[in-house]
Amino acid sequence: MKDILEVIIRNLVNNQEEVSITERTEAKSINYEVKVAKDDMGKIIGKQGKMAKAIRSIMKAIAVKEHKKVNIEFLD
Fold first, then answer.
1. Domain total in the chain
2. What CATH code is carried by the domain that includes residue 45?
């Protein structure tokens, strides 16, 4: 799942080298911390958070198949 998230994020940003995704796995949940360049943060979040919400929705749909919960946090 981390690979899918990384592909989505890298295709949205200009500075692909600065994309960093940290994965923490617990029993029934997976937590991702996404860091991108400051210039690209607006592209990831989108207007009124719509892009971030769409990314979270896609990842939650994938996680349902694996019977897990996903939490994605976008860090500065």
1. 1
2. 3.30.300.20
If you compute the radius of gyration of the chain from its CA atoms, what whole number of angstroms results?
Answer: 12
Distances from the Cα of 10 to the Cαs of 27, 37, 66, 69, in angstroms?
28, 11, 24, 23
C-alpha pair distances (Å), 62 with each of 3, 18, 43, 72? 12, 25, 22, 13
Residue 41: which domain range? 2-75
Beta bridge partners of 23: 32
- Whole-structure pTM value: 0.89
Each residue's pLDDT tens digit, 54-73: 999 999 999 999 899 999 99
